Amino acid sequence: LALAILLSGGGSNAQAIMDACRSGALDAKVRIVGADRLSAGGLDRAAAMGVDHFVVDYKGILQDTEASSVYPPPPDLDLGDVLKKQHLFPEDRASEEGCVSEKVRHFFMRRAAAERMLLDALLPFEPDLIVLAGFMRTLSPYFIDRMQQPGELPKIMNIHPALLPAFPGTDGYGDTFRHGCRVGGCTVHFVDYGEDSGPIVGQAAFPILPGDSLEDVKRRGLEEEWKLYPSCIQLYAEGRLVLENRPQRSGAVRR
Ligand code: GRF
């Protein structure tokens, strides 16, 4: 199984996945690691493991709000379609792009430009699965639709630091801790158009004990993540994941 990893931070999950590939615990190979910022420590980990890596400077691209940007939207961007899939306006008005502000339009166009650069860097490595490991950017329908087709097994996985559907967003362990939960956890799921809302592949839970600090919770959580993520990717590698339709939503289950 050919993997591409995207990350923004220290890359301890990427490390766990690369280690599992090397030890043979995971029947896969990390072909390429990409980051949205130069300062991502995970890039050094990739370099140390001899894995190709690249950066797409999201900040610089998104901050460029000039109409005549040096980062033009990709020619195949259908902005109305992307806005519709992100529920920014009702379906029957999908073609009326004018009903979202210029600012939003520019943000979406710039983000698609960044995503085009991601795709151009990733696709030559022919990844079977895109693995998000602490990638702090939302991938828009523009990117998702170019990686996976509706109805097929998704090709983008994410790890989230909470027991979804509780606590989506950027601070899962913090939100779990502040809520006073007695159990924390992490979730590996496929990526869809929503925020941390795609079909769940696997979860791991751990106790939160009286006297624990947020740092304790994060440490315990990360230790679970390092085991959970490679094991979920291994299920994918073995072809053991199938999508199952549930009444309200889709779930991914083991075969
Ligand atoms: C992890 O807690 C992951 O769940 C979240 O971001 C963190 C990334 O950590 N999405 P690392 O960069 O893998 O060390």
From TrEMBL:
Annotated positions for site Raises pKa of active site His: D196
One MF term in the entry's GO annotations: phosphoribosylglycinamide formyltransferase activity
EC numbers for this chain: 2.1.2.2
Signal peptide from the UniProt entry: 1-16
Keyword Transferase: yes
Catalyses which reaction(s): N(1)-(5-phospho-beta-D-ribosyl)glycinamide + (6R)-10-formyltetrahydrofolate = N(2)-formyl-N(1)-(5-phospho-beta-D-ribosyl)glycinamide + (6S)-5,6,7,8-tetrahydrofolate + H(+)
Keyword annotations: Purine biosynthesis, Signal, Transferase
Residue span, Formyl transferase N-terminal domain: 3-232
Example of a GO biological process term: 'de novo' IMP biosynthetic process
Active site residues of this protein: H160
Parts forming coiled coils: none
Pathway connected to this protein: Purine metabolism; IMP biosynthesis via de novo pathway; N(2)-formyl-N(1)-(5-phospho-D-ribosyl)glycinamide from N(1)-(5-phospho-D-ribosyl)glycinamide (10-formyl THF route): step 1/1
Binding of (6R)-10-formyltetrahydrofolate, residues: R93, N158
PANTHER family per UniProt: PHOSPHORIBOSYLGLYCINAMIDE FORMYLTRANSFERASE (PTHR43369:SF2)
Annotated function: Catalyzes the transfer of a formyl group from 10-formyltetrahydrofolate to 5-phospho-ribosyl-glycinamide (GAR), producing 5-phospho-ribosyl-N-formylglycinamide (FGAR) and tetrahydrofolate.
Protein name in UniProt: Phosphoribosylglycinamide formyltransferase
Protein source organism: Desulfobotulus alkaliphilus
